[in-house]
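Try this one yourself first.
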């Protein structure tokens, strides 16, 4: 079951999706044993940005049939305040970073390069460009240029986490590869929203189009859909990207079982990440890896 990924030796192909497994909270529940029996073969951090971010106002979650919309808004302490844990599981650490410009991303990647405990860097490119308002990762030309700039700042493996909110995800995968990425990961959450139940607590005002007369539920207005509801989209997008690039692909989106993970492997993924399922079953990663065995 052990697998090589961008020069890293992993015990099995199951890792976590960024932002979906709080290792500190899990350690409180499972105790020190968590460090010995970590459910994933590598740990992907939640997204870190250059400056501290408070995240979006509440409410931050909305459950849909077979899915979850989150509008967490990437709260984090920022680069300067992000310290290493005193004791870590003996698995590779992949640090996920996001910036609104190539310069911001470059500074984050350089900081990761200088930290010995970081094995690889994942670029979250689902961030709107400050000038165009478009997600950096949604436009192949912009994506290739950003990846090329950032590539020069580290010799560690660089994984580009593609956005599914784009016209042609395989063109974006190819652009990441041509910019110098060592791997791509997908899918991130699909843009989604929810209206506040009539006559109930109202969230953010829905100024941007549909629902303008009725408040949005999520404090951030819109959010990202994850979980089983997006599994078929993930399968299609992972298959499309894997068919177009030569670099390894990390597939994710709605995986709940070993059979779901196997489907992503069968369409060309090298690793599979488990996200929303870990909220229901914090041991899902271990269960799925065992099921694959
Ligand atoms: C609550 C929550 C927080 C997330 N936070 C991040 C994040 O910080 N950075 C990131 O790149 N993706 C983030 N994601 C996206 C997941 O890593 C994953 O790409 C997505 O949820 C699809 O997988 P899933 O259906 O198995 O959850 C988050 C998802 C959820 C549900």
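Now uncover the answer:
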């Amino acid at each position: 079951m052990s697998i090589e990924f961008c020069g890293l030796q992993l015990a099995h192909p199951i890792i976590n999706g960024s932002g979906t497994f709080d290792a500190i909270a899990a350690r409180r529940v499972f105790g020190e044993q968590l460090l010995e029996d970590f459910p994933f073969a590598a740990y992907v951090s939640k997204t870190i940005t250059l400056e501290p971010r408070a995240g979006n106002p509440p409410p931050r979650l909305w459950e849909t049939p077979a899915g979850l919309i989150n509008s967490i808004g990437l709260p984090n302490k920022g680069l300067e305040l992000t310290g290493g844990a005193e004791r870590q599981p003996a698995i590779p650490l992949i640090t996920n970073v996001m910036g609104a410009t190539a310069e911001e991303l470059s500074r984050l990647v350089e900081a990761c390069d200088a930290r010995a405990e970081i094995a690889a860097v994942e670029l979250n490119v689902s961030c709107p460009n400050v000038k165009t308002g478009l997600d950096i990762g949604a436009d192949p030309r912009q994506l290739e240029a950003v990846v090329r700039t950032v590539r020069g700042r580290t010799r560690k493996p660089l994984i580009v986490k593609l956005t599914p909110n784009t016209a042609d995800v395989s063109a974006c995968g190819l652009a990441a590869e041509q910019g110098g990425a060592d791997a791509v990961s997908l899918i991130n959450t699909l843009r989604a929203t929810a209206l506040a139940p009539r006559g109930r607590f109202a969230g953010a005002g829905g100024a941007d189009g549909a629902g303008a007369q009725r408040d949005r539920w999520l404090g951030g207005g819109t959010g990202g859909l994850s979980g089983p509801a997006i599994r078929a989209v993930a399968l299609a997008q992972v298959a499309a990207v894997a068919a177009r690039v030569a670099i390894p692909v990390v597939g994710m989106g709605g995986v709940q079982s070993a059979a779901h993970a196997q489907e992503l492997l069968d369409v060309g993924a090298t690793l599979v990440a488990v996200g929303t399922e870990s909220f229901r079953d914090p041991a899902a990663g271990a269960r799925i890896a065992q099921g694959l065995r």
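Discussion: Residues 231-244 form the longest helix (14 residues). The CA atoms of residues 24 and 85 lie 9 Å apart.
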